[in-house]
Amino acid sequence: MGARIQLIAIDKKYKDKQVVRSVYLDVKPGDFLTILGPSGAGKTTVLKILAGFEKADQGQVLIDGTDITDAPPYKRNIGMLFQNYALFPHLTVAENIAFPLTVRKEGRAEIDRKTRAILERVKLTGYEKRLPRELSGGQQQRVALARALVFNPPILLLDEPMSALDKQLRKHMQVEVKEIVREIGITTISVTHDQEEALTMASQVCVMENGSVAQCADPRSIYERPRSPFIANFIGEANLLKGRIFEISGDRADVALEAGPSVRVSCDMIFYAHKEMVYVLARPEKIQVVEEPPAKGLCLSGRVAQIIYVGEAIRLDVEIESGETIKLKMLSKRSQEYSPGQAVTIAVREDDLALVKMEDRP
């Protein structure tokens, strides 16, 4: 069973630069949390503070309610998978995996039993005597993961775990690692700058910006209901149209767009106010070219400015009457239907729109 992890008001400075600002996290036992953000957002520093490799200037680190803020790394009982795997090149697969058990002075029979069991779990039975250089990148990652799990820690930390792998192997390992940690029930925190990896692997995603937590929620909420323009643009592609709320009724807001029409959007009344300036978010894959305007939702007229082929899909850039450019995505087999300069009508269903706060900060 995994452990509960709490970070309370964590601050950290390097010289005069504030790299982490008042970070709060509460990770439930067995959850998989990914900390996502651009370079310099503070995500790796948060991971190092949790692991004990860095000490926070202020704040507390709690594991199952126990304060471990000042505990050294070796007393935290945390498994860690490093970006470069950090395997011992002169040790075999079995010896690499057994290393944490050897350090803990477990008996030979118990070491062999646990090593065999974890090798089977990561599908490396039969590779016991190979050296790291004789393995593929994916196999090396499995060895590093097995070493991090063999002593049965309640917490696993992953530092950019997929960055050294090619795209296809990375996608495969994302699913495989997710399944292994789910079966074990270990609480996992991963750090990455890869949005697809975060959405694929995590049960909770924490987006960081300039050292602060910008939003922490399940992947669907992060993508479909981002709290700020930064998150909307960082997670996938976004069309953000400026507007002003002129009426709020129940869980819906009526917004007059600068682009022209008015549109009704679902909203949380706690966060929005009458006459507030906002963005209306429309993801490119939610927008369609239509013959007839829908009864509800957003409808705009424009001309195709650009067609971009991206393999399984095409992206249409449509310049609407206000001069703004709207991005659409659709199956690439439809690319022959459109040409630059063509007049089109585009629409988004009401339920596929979202409100985003105008302030671009956490």
List the helices and strands and how they pair.
Blueprint: E1 5-14, E2 17-27, E3 32-36, H1 43-51, E4 58-63, E5 66-67, E6 78-81, H2 93-103, H3 108-121, H4 137-149, E7 155-159, H5 167-184, E8 187-192, H6 195-201, E9 204-209, E10 212-217, H7 219-224, H8 229-234, E11 239-249, E12 252-257, E13 262-266, E14 277-282, E15 288-289, E16 298-309, E17 313-320, E18 325-331, E19 343-348, E20 353-357
Helix pairs in contact: 2-3, 2-4, 3-4
Description:
- The chain is α+β, with helices and mostly antiparallel strands.
- It folds into 2 domains: 225 residues, P-loop containing nucleotide triphosphate hydrolases (Rossmann fold, 3-Layer(aba) Sandwich); 121 residues, Nucleic acid-binding proteins (OB fold (Dihydrolipoamide Acetyltransferase, E2P)), CATH 2.40.50.
- The radius of gyration is 24 Å and the shape is globular.
- Helix 2 packs across helix 3, helix 2 runs parallel beside helix 4 and helix 3 packs across helix 4.
- The longest helix has 18 residues.
- It is 23% helix and 36% strand.
- The mean pLDDT is 91.
- Strand 12 and strand 13 form a beta hairpin.
- The strands form 4 sheets. Strands 6-7-8-3-9-10 form a 6-stranded mixed sheet, with helices on both faces. Strands 13-12-11-14-20 form a 5-stranded antiparallel sheet. A 5-stranded antiparallel sheet has the order 15-19-16-17-18, with no helix packed on it.
- The protein is built from 8 helices and 20 strands.
